[in-house]
Amino acid sequence: MKNNVVKAGLFSMILLGMISCVDKEKEFADNRISELEIYVDSLNKVSAEERQENWNEIAADYEAKNANANEALLGLEGSDRDISQEKVNASNAKYDEIKVTVISKNELATSEDLTQYKKVSARQLLRDRLFGAGKIGSDMNFSWVNKNNILSVYDNYYQSYKANKDNFTREDYDEAKLLFEALDTRKNKVEKQGLSASDNMKIASIKVKLAPMFKFDRMTAKSRENLEAKE
After folding, report:
1. Residues 93, 162: one domain?
2. pTM check: above 0.85
3. Measured in whole angstroms, how far is the alpha carbon of residue 128 from the centre of its chain?
4. Of 100, 102, 162, 220, which residue is the least packed, with the fewest Cβ within 10 Å?
5. Is residue 147 a part of any domain in this protein?
6. What pLDDT shows up at residue 21?
7. Is residue 9 a part of any domain in this protein?
8. Model confidence over 114-157: pLDDT tens digits?
9. CA gap 205, 193 in Å, rounded
């Protein structure tokens, strides 16, 4: 009888410890996400001129806070993660809208310049959304991805892709797939640098989920664009 009581007590202590750990992970994630939300919302209170002049610093601060929020998401599961991911995605979308307005009109002298800017800007916004602001440029350099952060890079790509794919054009899908293939090429090098078996399995799971989505979503976008063209 005494042994049973002791066992029950130990089980209760372990259970309470697990619950406490989960609560701490959620509190940590909530704080990181709140920092991101507050920062992005504060940008709307800054004048367009100030944003233009200080954009490099703003982008760096945003990237740091966004990275912290996404890293904290890895400690959550189930509905907690889904709800928190939606908050991060909402802040990312707000930031993207602000970023588009940071344009030097003096550099857009002709309509041709403006058209070209919109094309380049759309691609860059997609890269920023999938990988983080300023992480990937037109050179598609993934040298910053290493064995310590590669899982979070894949996971952030997957979560951002799911959240935004319904608004993608066929060009967006082609660009997204090209970027993913470039990330995969980097993964081959990272594997030789000591990528853990656990992270490798999680990345493989993400790739399995994405493979059919690339094909199906692009076909859906094509049908949608054809329908809109007829209207």
Report:
1. no
2. no
3. 8
4. 100
5. yes
6. 53
7. no
8. 455 445 577 888 888 899 877 888 788 999 999 999 999 999 99
9. 21
